[in-house]
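Rotation project, supervised by the postdoc (A.L.). Task for the rotation student: set up a whole-complex structure prediction and record inputs and outputs verbatim in this book. Inputs entered:
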Amino acid sequence: MNLIVFGVNHKTAPVEIREKLSISDKLVKEHLRMLNSHAPDIHEKVILSTCNRTEIYARVSDVKKGVESLKRFLCNYHEIEADTLKKYTYLLVLEEAVEHLFKVAASLDSMIVGEPQILGQVKVAYKAARELESTGTVLNRLFEQSFTVAKRVRSETGIAENAVSISYAAVELAKKIFGDLENKTVLLIGAGEMIELAARHLVSQGVETILVSNRTYERAVDLATEFNGEAVKFDKLHDELKRCDIVISSTGAPHFVVRKDLAVKVIAERNNRPMFFIDIAVPRDIEPSVNDIDNCYLYDIDDLRNVVEANLVERAREAKSAEEIVVSEVSQFFIWLDHLEVAPAIVSLRRHVESIRRKELDKTLRRLEGVSEKDKELIEKMTVSMINKVIHAPVVNLKKKAETEEGHTYLKALRYLFGLKD
Amino acid sequence: MNFLFAVATFLYFLGMIKYLLYLALRNKILFVLATVMIFSGFVFETAALAQRSMVTGHGPYTNIFEYCVFSGWITFGVFLIAEGYFRIKQLGAFMVPIGFALMLFSLPFSQSAGSDLPVTAYWLTLHRTMSFLGFGAFTLIFAAGLMYLIQERQLKSKHIGGWYHRLPSLDILDNVNRTGLIFGFPMLTIGAMAAGVWSSQNYGTIVEFKLSNTLLLLGWLVYAVVSVGRFRFGWRGRRAATLGIAGFGIVAAALLVHIS
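Outputs recorded:
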């Protein structure tokens, strides 16, 4: 029995190839049906297709044959040459395959390590395969365990704790200053994609009031409507500032919109309640020395980038401890698998020696003359007890080894040495 | 040293190590274990103090040993309440070492003689209890202040590092400072006033100007300034944190001089 992963991901293939091989949610089921009926070599299968990867997880008897039929299948249903496919795909077998799935589910193989969507995508892929009865004992167990791994990684490491996008980094900083963001007031000065994105993040964190100001009042009104906020006339900006806890600025103004002396005044009016200025404009909108005022925090676009970078370093460190979890879970899985395989292996070992015994015994008995029925029985008994004694120790030891990480190696060795088939 | 005290000190030690490890490694299991250790240590010390008080017939505040273990007990008590209330998981790494240091400091004095002051006089008991409770609150202010200054440095300097990820928000740390003041300052005031009353009753003077009293008065003045600044003029943040730390330093020095 063998487990394989065959496919492409963002590390091995450029987007032109990935888009050719990608299989939409709707088509996944059709493809699974096709594999169910046309690829008998592949006993169990799950198709995982996201924008960063298309992978087929499968249980096969023979790796070569299995991969061949997967290749044929991919070439037939996607407009791709066999040579091109060969160049970009990878094949992982057994331990590597299991480890790969665990890493994928735990978001360790993602383009942005720790991003949360992938686990959901793995779950959807597994559910689709299960509904079509494309999976069996082994893949069911494998995928269920991958969800456990993902959960453990999430709760035992800080891999997903820190923001890795600029707009989310701003939210994270705001939380480090204000604690929770409920009842906070945000002022957006100017417009643009970044400012809207940051505002959206803040709203999802429970920010209460959004004020929008723009040189063009109509645009302010538009944006304010979108966020259920209030539009503020640009010349009234200074009066409104003292209401605001968080100020995000992104205007095209060639000069500072908020100067230090203004910020000093506003902070005093606010009774020193902290303010967080986020300046994503270039040239900058807020005088840099605002950061020197007590209880004022100012981050410009470069500062936010630095935060993101620091967080990425932090994630990489957390990923290391996550990989330790993956390694221990992989060996757990193989202990289970060995248990599953031990019984059939022993049965086929018994069958194998029994058939040899039978054959040789018949041959010998035919040649012997003048042997009484009683003697024949004695000879028969002797052969039985001989083979039982011979295979006793291997069977007992194999069962013992199946409890350990080496179990799989011993199983493989047993099958190899006795020439047993799967 | 009494067996119960020894067990308590050992548990505090284990808890302290786990809190420090938790700060470094951020494994939640360590945090849970640490809290369990400190709580168990606190239970043992409570039993030890109760037993001692029953034997001696008065509260545990008559010699250096008792001062130390009692202020340690208060520190751990305040810490457990604060950790439960504010849910700041990193508080332990800052506050527990102070409590443990007090326990450790008491060790060489476990056989020391009692002071010659009366042990059950009403005003003295009030002075001692309130001063120790105030001290516990100031330890909390100190720990939160330290965390505040570190986190504020991270945010202001924009050099985001491990501390940024580990420490909680400035808002909650400032909130601890505020709460600590609300409890600590009145207690210190009552404690000092009770001492004044007792002194005037027995020596005919409210304040005897020796080093410990001067220090205590200075510490009280610092806290008075922060309290007024905070609740009257809206001081907060770095200024409140810095003054809180300074006040703790002075009060701790006063305590040290006073008891030795």
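Student's summary: The radius of gyration of chain A is 33 Å.
Supervisor addendum: Chain A has three domains: 2-156, 166-309, 336-418.
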